[in-house]
């Protein structure tokens, strides 16, 4: 499994768990439409947190994952961000449109 695929799965689970209780209609729509996931690269934890704040300001589900610190990454470091929401492709592209694929 590629690095991007692994990261997308981890971030997807965080968003899934949130939307399951907060907005199941969006979750069902995502499930019916192919469960799209795209892995993009940012260059710092600060950038990741900025992207999360931008997504949340647009009322999108945005969940960052903090690493447990058991291997290569310092404990508590945010390593991946999942973003989802209603009409999400258009809104997510406003936030992530300049990022490159992982």
Secondary structure topology:
Layout (H helix, E strand, L loop, with lengths): L2 H20 L1 H9 L7 E2 L3 H13 L3 E6 L11 E7 L3 H9 L3 E2 L1
Antiparallel strand pairs: 1-4, 2-3
GO molecular function: peptidyl-tRNA hydrolase activity
Protein name: peptidyl-tRNA hydrolase
Pfam family, one: PTH2
DSSP, total strands: 4
- The portion of residues assigned to helices is 40-55%
Tell me about the largest β-sheet.
Answer: 2 strands, antiparallel
- Judged by helices, strands and strand pairing, the structural class is alpha+beta
Quote the distance from N terminus to C terminus: 13 Å
Please state the CA-atom Rg, rounded to the nearest Å: 13 Å
Mean pLDDT: 88
**Portion in beta strands:** 15-25%
What is the H/E order?
A: HHEHEEHE
Shape: globular
| Poorly predicted residue ranges | none
Give the strand line-up of the largest sheet.
Answer: 1-4
The helix tally amounts to: 4
Organism: Lentinula guzmanii
GO molecular function: peptidyl-tRNA hydrolase activity
InterPro entries: Pep_tRNA_hydro_II_dom_sf, PTH2
Family: Belongs to the PTH2 family.
